[in-house]
Design goal:
Length: 377
C-alpha cells in the first residue's frame, strides 16, 4: 500500500479525525472557530432571552404575531438579497488572494446597492399585500419594516466571515438586537408589539452601522485608489443559483411562517414559534463552524486541494453529531418540562411540538456542511 493510501486510511479512523480536529483548534483557524463559537453562543442566547421575556410578557397570541413578522422578514430579506451574501463569502477571499482589487471594490460597492434595491422592493410589495391579509395584516406590515434590516444583517454577517472575522458578524447579527430588546423589556415593560419592533429595528440599525464600519476597515487598503470593476451579470449568474441552495434550508426553517401563519391562529403560531426557538439552538454550532470553514472550502477548491476539502467536511460532520445529539435526546425525553421551564405554564402545550421539531432540526443541522461545500464548489 502506498504512503498516500495509508495516510488516507488513517484519516478515516476516529483517531485520525480527532487528531485533525485537535490540529485545527491549535492553529489560527481553530482560534477563529472558538471565537465564532463564543459569539454565536451570545447571539443565540440573546435571541432566546428576548423570546422568553417577550413571550412571558405579551402572551401566546402577541408572541405569535411577533414571531410571524420577524420570521417573514428574515425569509424575504434572504430572498430579496438575490444570493449576494453567500456570493461575497465565496468571491471576496479569492479576490484578496489574487490581489484583484478592482473586482473586490466593485463587489463591495455593488453588494449594498443590490441588497437595498432588492429588499426595499420586496418590502413595498409585502406592505401592499398586507392590506389583503386578514388576521395577518399587522404581522405583514411589521415584516415589511424589518425586511431591509434583516437583508443587511445577513449581508454584513457573510461579508465579515469572508474577511476572516466571522465572530464579529455573528455577534452583531439578530442576537445583538435581541439582547438590547431583552434588556429594554426588563427596564421598560410593554405589551405593544409595534413598540417591540421599533426597539428591535433601532438596535439592529446600530449593529448594521457598526458592522459596516468594521467591514470597510478590514478590507485591504490597496482598494482605496482603484477604480471599481462591476461584473454584475457574471456575479448574479453565480449568486442566483447559490440563493437556491441557501433558501431551501431557510424555507424549511421558516415553515411556521409559510404555513402556520395563514392556516392557523396566532396562538398556535406562538406555541410553534416558542418550541422552534428552543430547537433553533441545535443548529447554531454548525452555523458557527461553517462561518469559518466556508471560506476555507472556497480557498481549497480554488487551489485544487480536494483532500483538504474532504478533511474539513469530516471534521464538520463529527462536530455536528457531537454538539447536537445530546441536546436532541433531552428535548425528546422531557419536552413539556423544558417548555414550562423556559417559557412558562402557558406554553406547556407545545411539548409534543418540541419533541418532533428536535429530530427535524437534527437532520437540518447535519445538512449544513454539505450545503456549504456544494455552494463553494
Amino acid at each position: 500500500m502506498s504512503e498516500q493510501s495509508k495516510e488516507a486510511g488513517r484519516r478515516l479512523t476516529l483517531r485520525g479525525i480527532i487528531g485533525d480536529m485537535s490540529g485545527l483548534l491549535r492553529r489560527k483557524n481553530g482560534r477563529a472557530v472558538i471565537m465564532s463559537f463564543g459569539a454565536g453562543l451570545i447571539s443565540r442566547f440573546g435571541q432566546l432571552a428576548m423570546a422568553v421575556i417577550l413571550a412571558r410578557m405579551v402572551g401566546v397570541s402577541n408572541y405569535g404575531a411577533f414571531t410571524f413578522a420577524l420570521g417573514m422578514a428574515t425569509l424575504i430579506g434572504l430572498f430579496s438579497a438575490l444570493g449576494w451574501p453567500p456570493l461575497t463569502n465565496r468571491m471576496i477571499p479569492a479576490f484578496i488572494r489574487d490581489k484583484n482589487w478592482a473586482d473586490l471594490k466593485g463587489m463591495r460597492n455593488a453588494g449594498d446597492r443590490v441588497v437595498i434595491v432588492g429588499t426595499m422592493t420586496a418590502a413595498a410589495i409585502l406592505y401592499v399585500i398586507s392590506e389583503f391579509s386578514g388576521h395577518l395584516q399587522q404581522g405583514m406590515q411589521l415584516a415589511a419594516i424589518l425586511t431591509p434590516i434583516c437583508g443587511f444583517m445577513i449581508l454584513r454577517r457573510q461579508q465579515l466571515a469572508a474577511v476572516r472575522k466571522a465572530a464579529l458578524g455573528l455577534l452583531f447579527d439578530q442576537g445583538f438586537a435581541a439582547l438590547v430588546v431583552a434588556a429594554s423589556l426588563l427596564i421598560w415593560a410593554t405589551n405593544d408589539i409595534d413598540d417591540v419592533v421599533f426597539r428591535f429595528s433601532a438596535a439592529a440599525l446600530f449593529g448594521i452601522l457598526a458592522t459596516t464600519i468594521m467591514f470597510y476597515r478590514l478590507l485591504p487598503p490597496e482598494i482605496g485608489p482603484v477604480k471599481p470593476n462591476y461584473q454584475l451579470r457574471v456575479w448574479l449568474a453565480i449568486s442566483l443559483p447559490m440563493l437556491i441552495g441557501v433558501s431551501s434550508r431557510s424555507v424549511m426553517n421558516r415553515i411556521d411562517v409559510l404555513m402556520l401563519g395563514p392556516l392557523s391562529t396566532l396562538e398556535e403560531l406562538g406555541l410553534y414559534g416558542a418550541a422552534f426557538r428552543i430547537t433553533f439552538l441545535l443548529s447554531f454550532p454548525q452555523v458557527v463552524l461553517m462561518s469559518v470553514l466556508t471560506p476555507l472550502f472556497s480557498e481549497a477548491f480554488a487551489h485544487g486541494k480536494i483532500g483538504q476539502v474532504r478533511r474539513l467536511l469530516r471534521l464538520a460532520n463529527l462536530y455536528g453529531l457531537a454538539t447536537t445529539l445530546p441536546m436532541v435526546l433531552i428535548l425528546w425525553l422531557f419536552p413539556e418540562w423544558v417548555m414550562t421551564l423556559v417559557f412558562g405554564e402557558k406554553f406547556a402545550d407545545a411539548g409534543p411540538i418540541l419533541a418532533v421539531l428536535a429530530f427535524g432540526q437534527l437532520a437540518a443541522a447535519l445538512t449544513i456542511p454539505f450545503s456549504s461545500i456544494m455552494m463553494m464548489g
